[in-house]
Amino acid sequence: MASLELSTLVADPSAIDQPYELDSPLKKRRIRLRWGRGTILIIAAAYFILPFYAGMEYSLQRPTGGFSLTPLSQIASAPGFGAALWLSTQLAVITMLGVMVLMVPTVIYVHLRLPRFRRVMEVITTLPIIIPPIAYSVGVLESAPAWLRNSQYLLAVVYVILAMPYVYRSLDSGLGAIDVKTLVEASRSLGSSWLMTIWRVLVPNLRAALMSASVLTLALVFGEFTIANVDNWQTVPVWIYLAPTDNPRINTLVAMIALLATALVLILIVSLDRSQSRKSRRAQ
Amino acid sequence: MTLATDTAVLPSADASLPTGAPVVFDNLTRRFGTTTALDRFSLTIAPGELIALLGPSGCGKTTALRVLAGFERPDVGRILVDDKDVSSVPAQRRNMGMVFQSYSLFPNMSARDNVAFGLQLRHQRSAPRRLRASELLDLVGLSEHVSKYPHQLSGGQQQRVALARALAIEPRVLLLDEPLSALDAKVRAELRDQIRAIQQRLAITTVFVTHDQEEAMSMADRVCVMSRGHLEQVDTPAVLYSQPATAFVGQFVGVSSRLPVTRRGANVDALGRDVPIRGDLAGLPTGDLEALLRPEDLDVRVNPGGLGVVSHRSFFGATTRITVGLGGATLKIDVRSSEADELALGTRVDVSVTARDVLVTTPQPVS
């Protein structure tokens, strides 16, 4: 084989020495694709950055001209903001705990015992997106026990329902990336109870999915306006739009900060998701 | 890397390790919808014995293992371990180590933490736990990889960690569910020897599920051949091969050729020779039957006027397997490779039966 001439293996040996054809259709298609992507990215970035810039400019611009960071320091002392932030934080924590306690065992159970039920679960968990929030807000209010009906924590119950589509999908895709059945059986054969198996084996391997579900829930609670407003509770989004302040620029500034925080959090989710995919590819 | 396959290089058996437990599958039936995975399956396994459950896909071997592990409940029947009925004991309380077909290491734990997991659940303190895990990883030849995570280990290494993890809890029974099927041939052969050496060293009762007859025959003390949920035959590999009890075993274990024969009382006429029928004659029809013949049960000689024609040759080193077309039958015959030169493709040959007795079956319908 060593003496075999290269020319005997290649139909047109002269083609080997030729430089890469710049005008090849493949190259053209790549350039077109790159341009297409670039244009979409620029339009999307402009759609996000321009209003953000306008909001920040409105909030931080001095009447006399130039910019000042003073409004940032005024946020904390703005009337009602502290209470709204505290309420939203409480609701976010309760909602996250509630939705996780409800969904983690449910999704694991569906994956292990009722895999054919996954489609049905997908449809059920999509309902909160389809049904107008106001409808089940009234439903929850009507069916809630009297002691909870006038409590601000009733909102958390509604938010658990609202967060379900996002949490279900995150967990479902996280569980889809690992061999749940084998891991559970391996853990149980070693003497582990169900709770211990979930806590020591499944949850650590669902870290990215749980993180993504938590962050989406957090973003949802800090962004939901309609139901909180209808139920007359002043959460951060309600405060942003309705609170009477001496300086309306502060409301805008808080809205911009919330927007920026949400964007950063979403970038974080994407990075986590990518690192999880890389890990599972390596594991395979 | 050198595997610790020689028992001489294995650490001495821990005196605290109990020897294996006797296991009894007592008349087990397990149905999934309309499918009967196990059909009145009974089997007794002696303490310290390695038994292989062998059979084609869907024969019920994995279901039998899962019922023993506690992952499936039998519809009927009992599982006895150490003479105690464990049928309703949950999997986590059965103290059985299991190695799975797919890689089952916990991805978030290092090799040592995986092995130590079962000990941690048994509230063993950190220092002795880590020491025991390291010892077991050393036993399976992975002392250099204790801190590595599953994704940093090869398939063979992962299965060895899984074996160490299963052994760490000092199980009464070791369950192996096709642990080698995802590995390449060389690693598979090495790990096969290593598992057998460790099993013998620790004298642990082991149930090994496989569809690979070579694996079963080379590792097991006894092989249990299963078909459609029931036991066909259980015996030592040598007896299974030389005296298959049923046509299914004869065909599934080893290589068999089917030769049309005619029954004459307790004998059959096989290529002009009267050969006694092996086994029970009751229920066997008279007239046309088929004999199941091993490659070494036949002899082949060159004869220009012979009725057989060599149609294929496979070289196996010391022996060469010759395939001969004779009438409607296709016969596989092993000859010494030094004598195979004259048996070129297309050569006309005579074939004779040399077996002392033959297993016969009703003719297989032509598909």
Mean pLDDT of chain B: 88
Per DSSP, the total helix count of chain B is 8
| Structural Rg of chain A | 27 Å
| Strand/helix succession of chain A | HHHHHHHHHHHHHH
**What is the structural class of chain B?**
alpha+beta
Count of beta strands of chain A: 0
C-alpha Rg of chain B (nearest Å): 24 Å
Spans where pLDDT lies below 50 across 5 or more residues of chain B: 1-17
Largest interface: A-B, 21 and 31 residues
Largest sheet of chain B: 6 strands, mixed
Amino- and carboxy-terminal Cα gap of chain A: 36 Å
Give the topology string of chain B: H per helix, E per strand: EEEHEEEHHHEHEHEEHHEEEEEEEEEE
* Oligomeric state of the chains present here: heterodimer
What is the mean predicted local confidence, pLDDT of chain A?
81
Low-confidence parts of chain A lasting 5 or more residues at pLDDT below 50? 1-18
Q: Helical amount among residues of chain B, as a percent range?
A: 10-25%
Strand content of chain B: 25-35%
Strand content of chain A: under 5%
The tally of strands of chain B reads: 20
Strand order, sheet with most strands of chain B: 6-7-8-3-9-10
Helix and strand arrangement:
The complex is a heterodimer of chains A (284) and B (367).
Chain A: H1 6-9, H2 25-60, H3 70-74, H4 81-113, H5 118-130, H6 133-143, H7 146-149, H8 154-176, H9 180-189, H10 194-205, H11 207-223, H12 226-230, H13 236-242, H14 248-283
Helix pairs in contact in A: 2-14, 4-8, 4-11, 5-8, 6-8, 8-11, 9-10, 11-14, 13-14
Chain B: E1 23-32, E2 35-45, E3 50-54, H1 61-69, E4 76-81, E5 84-85, E6 96-99, H2 111-121, H3 126-139, H4 155-168, E7 173-177, H5 185-202, E8 205-210, H6 213-219, E9 222-227, E10 230-235, H7 237-242, H8 247-252, E11 257-264, E12 267-270, E13 273-276, E14 288-293, E15 298-302, E16 308-315, E17 319-326, E18 329-336, E19 348-353, E20 359-361
Parallel strand pairs in B: 3-8, 3-9, 6-7, 7-8
Antiparallel strand pairs in B: 1-2, 1-4, 4-5, 9-10, 11-12, 11-14, 12-13, 14-20, 15-19, 16-17, 16-19, 17-18
Helix pairs in contact in B: 2-3, 2-4, 3-4
